[in-house]
Design goal:
One of its GO terms (molecular function) is glycosyltransferase activity. Keywords: Carbohydrate metabolism, Fucose metabolism, Glycoprotein, Glycosyltransferase, Membrane, Signal-anchor, Transferase, Transmembrane, Transmembrane helix. This is O-fucosyltransferase family protein. This protein is of the alpha/beta class. The protein has a domain of about 120 residues. It is built from 10 helices and 6 strands. Strands 1, 2, 3, 4, 5 and 6 form a 6-stranded parallel β-sheet that branches. It is elongated and about 100 Å long. The structure holds 2-acetamido-2-deoxy-beta-D-glucopyranose (NAG). 2-acetamido-2-deoxy-beta-D-glucopyranose binds next to helix 8.
Length: about 250
């Protein structure tokens, strides 16, 4: 009886050893897999880093309107209904009217994505108000993930001239405020609105427009990742968001 018990114990030990061995092999295998995956992840990371080096290339590139590079960057967008129902423009819509209601000066705070979203929103808002958009001032929160330390200005995101040219049929854009208004802004004499991404077009027409008409300028401060409520804006957003969306998808 005793001897039998011993052999039983020994064979049990063998099984335990076998299971242990199997587990070790499995763990080793998993480690190899993980290591491989991590290497791939790393190279993807590298690829995303190189995005930030695009700009210098485009800066020296010939960006006149009939080059393939220009078309690739600023050409028509493919059909995007499946992705975003309002992203494809309608056939035609009116160019901005000559008469401007004034300047919309924008300060955008936030991380990379907030800033990108806000930019397309302000384009829509400027159009909505028949206003002239001043190239937004960017205040990136440097603690945000994915932001290069070089990212301190609008020009880091977009080539300003191309941005203005590409949106010429949607909204008038200028690089800076006229001198007198710049001075007024420095003295904090410009009416200021802190707007969130849930603000409606009605708000802009009802509250911002009268102030804009009176002062010829308003300042919008955006720190919420946008300044206009999402869909439901059908035509205005659908049509006017397009050029920015076009770029957004490539960023
Ligand atoms: C902007 O201009 C269009 C076309 O003239 C006009 O229909 C619209 O009422 C104007 N909107 C504002 C806010 O001035």
């Amino acid at each position: 009886m005793k001897g039998e018990g011993k052999t039983l114990f020994k064979s049990k030990l063998k099984w335990v050893g076998l299971v242990g061995l199997a587990l070790s092999v499995f763990s080793l295998f998993t480690h190899f897999l993980l290591a491989r995956y991590a290497v791939e992840g790393f190279s993807e990371y590298q690829a995303s880093i190189t995005i930030f080096f695009w700009r210098p290339i485009f800066e020296i590139a010939d960006l006149s309107t009939n080059t393939p590079l220009y078309r690739r960057l600023w050409g028509p967008v493919r059909q995007l209904e499946s992705l975003y129902p309002h992203a494809t423009p309608k056939g035609s819509y009116a160019a901005p009217i000559l008469q401007t209601n004034g300047f919309v000066f924008v300060r955008i705070r936030g991380g990379f994505h907030e800033i990108r979203n806000s930019i397309s929103d302000v384009v829509v808002v400027a159009r909505l108000l028949n206003a002239t958009l001043v190239i937004p001032e960017i205040q990136s929160t440097t603690s945000s993930k994915g932001i290069s330390s070089e990212f301190k200005s609008f020009a880091y995101l977009y080539n300003e001239d191309q941005f203005i040219a590409a949106l010429a049929k949607d909204v008038r854009i200028v690089k800076t405020l006229p001198k007198n208004l710049k001075g007024a802004r420095r003295k904090k004499e410009i009416p200021l609105f802190k707007v969130s991404r849930s603000v409606s077009p009605y708000f802009y027409r009802r509250h911002v427009l009268p102030v804009l008409n009176r002062h010829s300028v308003v300042e919008l401060v955006i720190s919420d990742g946008g300044c206009l409520q999402p869909p439901g804006l059908q035509t205005v957003t659908g049509e006017k968001r397009n050029p920015a969306t076009n770029f957004k998808l490539r960023v």
